[in-house]
Amino acid sequence: MLAVTLGEVVKINNAQPTPYMDEAFHVRQAQHYCAGNWTVWDKKITTLPGLYLLTAVIAHCASAVTGKPNIHWCSLEKLRFVNIVMSVIIFVVMYTIFRKLSRRLKDDPGLGIQPIHRTCCMMNSLVLTCFPLLYFYNLLYYTDVGSVLFVLASYSCSIRNHHLKSALLGAISVLFRQTNIIWVGFTAGTVVIRDIENRGWLQQSDDFVSQMKIAVTVILRYFWQYLLLLLPYLIVLAGFVVFIFVNGGIVVGDKSAHTAVLHFPQFLYFLLFLTAFSLPHMVQRLRHSHLTVLYYVFKPVHVLLFFVSAVLALYFFKYEHPYLLADNRHYTFYVWRKILNRTPYTMFYLLPVCFYTFLNIVALLSTVHSKFFTLLYFLCVATQIVPQGLLEFRYFILPYLLYRLHVPQHSWVVLFLELCQYTLINLITVKVFLNKTFDWDITDHLTPNPQRFMW
User: Distance between CA 276 and CA 193 in Å, rounded?
Assistant: First the structure.
């Protein structure tokens, strides 16, 4: 897979030898840092300089070994290989997470969750490394791959009780994308949840209310112990609060285009996104469709609450960002026009799909972990995506990966189908990027023709 990916980068370098879209900002800023121009900053960049600092460190190390100047290692062609290196590390980090979490799995044929062998952990990791959005941005110089790497590395250290390392890696992840502070909070929350679970106070058979009461009681009883345990994470969180106060918000640049809104339908879009990219899993779950029927029968209030909330979200909080409507280079432009917003009622027709996926996520996560963990996961997902006015699939990468990491797939058939699905999508999207170009009538130095399709 690595050889194929390297070949794809070479093809992209040949077909697109100049920075494409946001690469123009990232490459220029990285080259400033490689040249030692630390005070230069492009105000159009919305994230902190984590990617550029890492690039400068790599360039410095390469320069020390080869004797060539730093800037030699910061050409566009070489910068695009940075994410390839990080993707290899992501595979290793994913494997360590799968291995650690798989030991917690309990044999439950009713829900299809079983402890998995290390070979299966490796296959799960390989499949997720091929996840289409992650794979595509491996080939370009964007912040997404580094963001994923440091969030997952932080979480991997946390589940091994290396909390100082975990908090440090979490802080570095924020330098790649500010919203990663949410996953620092998620990691800190799981530390407490794991401790409560390990003490045997949370039982899988307990209902949600009982688990919440137990968790709150335990947290209050051992408050100071947990405070000390979480101190590294709390320092990172406090530092981020100071940053927001000093910066005047979470966004570094181009603040007018990235204002926070209440965009509740984002959660429904994420459920559809998860359905599409975990299609083999959702089809497999059809064997247990009787559980969905029983849920409708015995918990009608919960069903009604979901659909009423979803309808209200779509009716009162639907938001169309100007970028979504104007930029026809992104697949979301066409997904929005041709599917999600094809008619004023399309999303309402898709609500049963959202509900089915939501039930399956809750069932799978609550089987492997406590219901308290499931609540924390959904709260963090909502906190990340709901304030985003723009429908952007890249915002769903970490929520999807963290869900998938916590429900390892033991079926080789499903894993094979998932790998085939991802490989096919990757082949199509890369081929389209390379060969399907078009021109804009009006361009500038940042958007020169030809234009290409991308996620």
Answer: 30
